[in-house]
Amino acid sequence: MSPTAGVSVSTIAATATATECHMLKIDGLKRLRIMHPTGARLESCPFEAAGHTWRIRCYPDGAHGHAGFISLYLVLDDAAADAVAGDMHVEVKFSMVHQPGALGALWPAHSRSKTFIFSKHALPFPHGFPKFIPVEELEWSPGFFRDDGFAVRCDITVIGKAAEKDPVVQARDLKRLGVVCHCKDEMCKRHHSGAARGVMWFREAFVKFFLGCFQVYENSP
């Protein structure tokens, strides 16, 4: 009988779409803050990424309760809600885009990332960062801010899971299960005999060490 008879293995693994990104540019921040005070939002055009349609919400003077900040959120587009089956885990990362030139290249990076759950029963609930960056800090960051404008990159990765039966039971899995292989293949025999020799060598070495210690103790005055 095959050593794998009656033994099967399946694997559950996290899966992920390829990370895709969208860049949102904001021009004329001072005027936009006047037109959109705290709690008022701007919204990008819909875009495709990671197999779904999204929008980015930007609050140029902060979301409610977060005045003085740039607030950024990712929203699953209303028209794409039917494509969501239950809860969807999404890795979201917003990053400031450096201005071209030497100064931009040397400026420290600024980003925020988190895994959010987009639920079909709570759409289009936005997920993001109400305190992404203080407006004052942004305006004093020439590596990001120029001519009253800046740009933000949004990286999106949809996380899932998959369960499948392994087509072949691997030797290492048999070993973990404590299943002894009785196969007649010569390569396999040599593998197992080598492992057995290793176990026997360890046992013999331990016995010799133990008896040696006992002998010294027995002959000592």
Plain-language structure description:
This protein is of the alpha+beta class and 221 residues long. The protein folds into two domains: 12-164, Apoptosis, Tumor Necrosis Factor Receptor Associated Protein 2, Chain A (Sandwich), CATH 2.60.210.10; 167-219. Helices cover 26% and strands 36% of the residues. The chain contains five helices and ten strands; from the N terminus they run ββαβββββαββαβαα. It has helices spanning 29-35, 102-106, 135-139, 171-177, 186-219; strands at 10-16, 20-27, 42-43, 47-49, 52-59, 69-76, 87-96, 111-119, 127-134, 149-165. Strands 1, 2, 7, 8 and 10 form a five-stranded antiparallel β-sheet that branches. Strands 3, 4, 5, 6 and 9 form a five-stranded antiparallel β-sheet that branches. A hairpin with a 2-residue loop joins strand 4 and strand 5. The radius of gyration is 30 Å and the shape is elongated. 16% of the residues are buried.
Key attributes of the depicted protein:
221 residues, alpha+beta, Apoptosis, Tumor Necrosis Factor Receptor Associated Protein 2, Chain A, 2 domains, five-stranded antiparallel beta sheet, 5 helices, 36% strand, disordered C terminus
Gist?
This protein has 221 residues and is an alpha+beta fold. The chain has helices at residues 29-35, 102-106, 135-139, 171-177, 186-219; strands spanning 10-16, 20-27, 42-43, 47-49, 52-59, 69-76, 87-96, 111-119, 127-134, 149-165.
CATH-defined superfamily of the largest domain = Apoptosis, Tumor Necrosis Factor Receptor Associated Protein 2, Chain A
Largest sheet: 5 strands, antiparallel
Number of helices: 5
Helices and strands: which structural class? alpha+beta
Counting DSSP E segments of at least 2 residues, the number of strands comes to 10
* Low-pLDDT segments, ≥5 res: 189-202, 214-221
Q: What is the CATH topology classification name of the largest domain?
A: Apoptosis, Tumor Necrosis Factor Receptor Associated Protein 2, Chain A
* Number of spatially distinct domains: 2
**What's the architecture of the largest domain in CATH terms?**
Sandwich
**SS strand fraction:** 35-45%
The Rg value, from CA coordinates, equals: 30 Å
CATH class type of the largest domain: Mainly Beta
Percent of residues in helical segments? 25-40%
Which whole number gives the mean pLDDT? 78
Order of helices and strands: EEHEEEEEHEEHEHH
The assembly state of the depicted protein chains is single chain
* Shape label: elongated
N- and C-termini, Cα separation: 59 Å
Organism: Eragrostis curvula
GO biological process, one term: protein ubiquitination
Domain MATH: 19-156
Protein name: MATH domain-containing protein
